[in-house]
Write a structure and sequence with these properties.
Helix content is about 35%, strand content about 20%. Helix 2 crosses helix 20. With about 850 residues, the protein is an alpha+beta fold. The strands form nine sheets. Strands 8, 9, 10, 11, 12, 13 and 17 form a seven-stranded mixed β-sheet that branches. It has a four-stranded parallel β-sheet with strand order 2-1-26-27, with helices on one face. The structure holds one RNA strand of 86 nucleotides.
Length: about 850
RNA sequence: GCCCGGGUGGUGGAAUGGCAGACACGGCGGUCUCAAAAACCGCUGAGGGAAACCUCGUGAGGGUUCGACUCCCUCCCCGGGCACCA
């Protein structure tokens, strides 16, 4: 009598056993190769969801599998615990964020245990605990020492709902906040920055060193960093009287070769010169209207395609360095203060935006670059002086071509990055009017937040000494508990926190009351796991050196830019500090797809959430794990199906009964590769066993976890077929036993509880199945003595042919041509060609 | 507009250029049962045919090849990212 498969009994039993025996604890082991499997740690926002289940199950399969393959595997977990949701929840429930956070962490930890994840809990990190954020503050001080910390006033993104500033990366495409999706406003504030732009070039270059990352993620990072090559060009400023003053203003351009076509000059509405230049002039009213409109428009309006640009002349002029021409300075809201210098040279014939602006305000559009087939070439080829002031075109031309009306450069071939660009840049450098330069879209990382629940910035404002770092010995700066966030208080409302003495002069001073962006906490946690309990250093170099870099990182695509870019930046700084010996933290990256329901993301507001805990109660963690791996390849989105979970539950039942039957059958002999495959059915099953082990092993390596499970199902089906024929013939017990033992070991990473129960409880082995070696396989043993080939005539399969698997090409060809059906099809035509593909098919071409 | 993905049965999905649809879900039929569930055994791309078989079929159209879901070109649709970046 086979006991019913009841995960609600066996799963807790093995989870308890793993806890009791410390089954998941690891330490450095120089005798074995190491492997670091990391899944993005969760935010403890409440119960776990299917996204967590998927992410962490994938990681758990990799970790458990590689352990069986003989690796020393680091597989840690922790919590990214600072941040706004904790504050909001605390306000709602009138508790302290720490209380809410730790309660959620405990709940999530229990859920992870119920899922059977093999985490080494001794290494857990919780970022809101002082023994973790202590080192985050230490990092801040070290960055400061290295000149990578800056405090400055500039236009920043302000989320009115979160009541804090945001980094550029945290403003989404539509101009909304990454966390609450409110529209972000621009404000001019003094804030703290990490100078990530100092590493812009390296962050871009090293993407090439990451073959194990998805192309998509690398592209997104490259776009975000946004490198463009060009030149800085200096324009001399004219005074109110129109005469050159000797002062200059610099612009960035990617097309210095079009300088001769510059007919006006633009400033961003926020540019500091704007107010100064128009104050008290007839231009003031109109210019200030443009400035006010730009300030009022939200980010969305200003960047949407429908938004009409507006502009106004300032009455001032600047001098074009290449031809000495005075061009008017305008203000327009299509010029961004944040990019380049906030000032632009306008070349309407070469830039569509400038073109439209010029048409609208009646400014000249002289051609300076002509395409090879442009009819104007006839008139302008070799023409150095400007004779045509207006192009007859519908739109600007920015493609390759030849320079015209461009003084001594006329006739030079040019285009983006072309000869003309270099020629003009060299001339500018010689004349001291400009230089080749590179501009990045990437901005420095704004890390200060005006919120309570974060890591306090370890800095002190002293009226006589200025900004003073908190001395290392005084770390950590602890978050005070007496702040009533339900009343909207922050650290700035806690005098006992901010009133302090200057570490430099001893005078009364004020402690910084901003906290750090939560993304600073998650930029180095993977290193802390290597030595999580170290209270004298951030980590021990030898330990980090043993485990790092992370061999396989697994997480959501939503971190493609934010977390993954910041972590790469931190790692490069750590390298420059001598803390680590590598430049990239994550060798391989897998971005898993989302779990959806009815085509939509699961969310509370849509009411389509399937709770993992419910599924565990109903079908068991093993069925849930296997289901979520089976339904789609890990990197693709997955459509939830209750029927699918039931199907997986059925499969596990089949495995359960198969192994029980084998174990209970006294006629089933001892296993072993030498066991006789004593009949045709047994030989077939033996081959299948070798084929499937090879297939599953390869599939896991390539993250084809869905097909790995499918292959195991095929093996189970084959075993059932074999059992059927055994009932008739009664031989082949050794193969049955061998298959059962191999199957249980292969299933162990996927369904760890059931595998454990079957291994020791049913098959009667000593020790944990997870300590067993991964099953071996032999490709030769997977091959049959004979194979069936498809026989194609002119590309269509017309017959089949069974030949010995070692048959030669000639033999196969003759056999194929000798087939009755083939012969009748070939009647009256001549065979032109015969292609033999070993083990697959024969293709006969006739005509 | 630019850059990535993707488009295969009723559904989720398989296929180093080599028999399209593995595996599963759903459906249909059977065995067992008083009955049902479970389990077990079949069938299940479309059209035609009693059947053997035949024809069509991987978003559309071309191309390369003995052979294309797979490679190349043009285009359509869906998802995502970036987008006044000078």
């Amino acid at each position: 009598m086979i006991p019913r498969y009841d995960p609600s009994v066996i799963e807790p039993k093995w989870q308890q056993r793993w806890r009791d025996t410390g089954a998941h604890a690891v330490s450095e082991d120089s005798a074995r190769p190491k492997y670091y499997v990391l899944e993005m740690f969760p935010y403890p926002s409440g119960d776990i969801h299917m996204g967590h289940v998927r992410n962490y199950t994938i990681g758990d399969v990799v970790a458990r599998h590689l352990k069986m393959r003989g690796y020393s595997v680091l597989h840690p977990m922790g919590w990214d615990a600072f941040g706004l949701p904790a504050e909001n929840a605390a306000i709602k429930s009138a508790t302290h964020p720490a209380e809410w956070t730790h309660a959620n962490i405990e709940r999530q930890r229990l859920s992870f245990e119920r899922m059977g994840f093999s985490y080494d809990w001794d290494r857990a990190v919780v970022t809101c605990d002082a023994d973790y954020y202590h080192w985050g503050q230490w990092i801040f001080l070290k960055f400061w020492e290295r000149g990578l910390v800056d405090r400055r006033r500039s236009p920043v993104n302000w989320c009115p709902s979160c009541k804090t500033v945001l980094a550029n990366e945290q403003v989404l495409g539509e101009g909304d906040c990454w966390r609450c999706h409110s529209l972000v406003e621009k404000r001019e504030l003094e804030q703290w920055y990490f100078k990530i732009t100092e590493y812009a070039q390296e962050l871009l270059d090293d993407l090439a060193e990451l073959p194990g990352w998805p192309e998509r993620v690398k592209t997104m990072q490259a776009n975000w960093i946004g490198r463009s090559e060009g030149a800085e060009v200096e324009f001399e400023i004219c005074g109110p009287d129109g005469e050159p003053t000797g002062e200059t203003m610099t612009v960035f351009t990617t097309r210095p070769d079009t300088l001769f076509g510059c007919t006006f000059f633009l400033l961003a509405p926020e540019h500091p010169c704007v107010r100064e230049w128009v104050a008290g002039t007839p231009y003031e009213a109109e210019v200030m209207r443009v400035v006010a409109d730009a300030g009022r428009a939200t980010a969305v309006e200003r960047t949407s395609g429908e938004h009409e640009w507006s502009g106004a002349p300032t009455g001032r002029f600047v001098v074009n360095p290449v031809n000495g021409e005075k061009v008017p300075v305008w203000v327009s809201d299509y010029v961004l203060m944040e990019y380049g210098t906030g000032a632009v040279m306008a070349v309407p014939s070469g830039d569509q935006r400038d073109f439209e602006f010029a048409r609208r305000y009646g400014l000249a559009i002289p051609p300076v670059v002509l395409a090879d087939d442009d009819p104007l070439l006839e008139l302008l080829a070799g023409q150095t002086e400007r004779v045509v002031r207006e192009v007859p075109w519908e739109r600007a031309y920015d493609g390759p071509g030849v320079m015209v009306q461009s003084g001594s450069f006329t006739g030079t071939p040019t285009g983006k990055g072309g000869q003309g660009v270099h020629a003009v840049t060299e001339w500018l450098e010689r004349e001291g009017r400009g230089r080749a330069t590179v501009n990045f879209r990437l901005r420095d990382w704004l890390i200060s937040r005006q919120r309570y629940w974060g890591n306090p910035i370890p800095a002190i404002h002293c009226s006589s000494c200025g900004l003073v770092p908190v001395p290392e010995a005084e770390l950590p700066v602890l978050l005070p508990s007496g702040v009533d966030i339900t009343k909207g208080q922050t650290l700035a409302d806690a005098p006992s926190f901010f009133q302090t003495d200057c570490p430099s002069c001893g005078g009364p001073a004020r402690r910084e009351t901003d906290t750090m962006d939560t993304f600073t906490c998650s930029s180095w946690y993977y290193l802390r796991y290597c030595d999580a309990r170290n209270d004298t250093a951030i980590w021990d170099a030898d330990r980090a050196g043993y485990w790092m870099p992370v061999d396989q990182y697994i997480g959501g695509i939503e971190h493609a830019i934010l977390h993954l870019l910041y972590s790469r930046f931190f790692t490069k700084v750590f390298r420059d500090m001598g803390l680590v010996a590598f430049s990239e933290p994550f060798t391989n990256l897998l971005t898993q797809g989302m779990v959806k329901k009815d085509g939509e993301t699961m969310s509370k507001s849509k009411g389509n959430v399937v709770a993992p805990e419910d599924m565990i109660s109903e079908h068991g963690a093993d069925a849930l794990r296997a289901y979520i791996l089976f339904m789609a390849p890990p990197d693709k989105d997955l459509e939830w199906s209750y029927e699918g979970v039931e199907g997986m539950s059925r499969f596990l039942g089949r495995v359960w009964r198969l192994v029980h039957t084998v174990a209970a059958d006294p006629t089933v002999g001892e296993a072993g590769d030498g066991g006789a495959a004593d009949d045709v059915a047994s030989a077939t099953l033996r081959r299948e066993r070798h084929r499937v082990v090879g297939k599953v092993t390869g599939d896991i390596a390539r993250f084809n976890l869905n097909t790995a499970l499918a292959a195991m199902m095929e093996l189970v089906n084959a075993a059932y077929d074999h059992r059927k024929s055994r009932a008739e013939g009664g031989v082949g017990g050794a193969v049955q036993r061998e298959v059962a033992q191999v199957l249980v070991r292969m299933l162990a990473p996927f369904v760890p509880h059931m595998a454990e129960e079957l291994w020791s409880g049913v098959l009667g082995f000593e020790g944990s199945v997870h300590e067993q070696p991964w099953p071996e396989w032999d490709d030769a043993a997977a091959r049959a003595e004979s194979v069936e080939l498809a026989v194609q005539v002119n590309g269509k399969v017309r017959d089949r042919l069974v030949v010995a698997s070692d048959a030669g090409d000639d033999e196969i060809r003759e056999a194929a041509l000798g087939l009755e059906k083939v012969a009748s099809l070939l009647a009256g035509s001549t065979v032109r060609k015969v292609v033999v593909v070993k083990g697959k098919l024969v293709s006969i071409v006739a005509g």
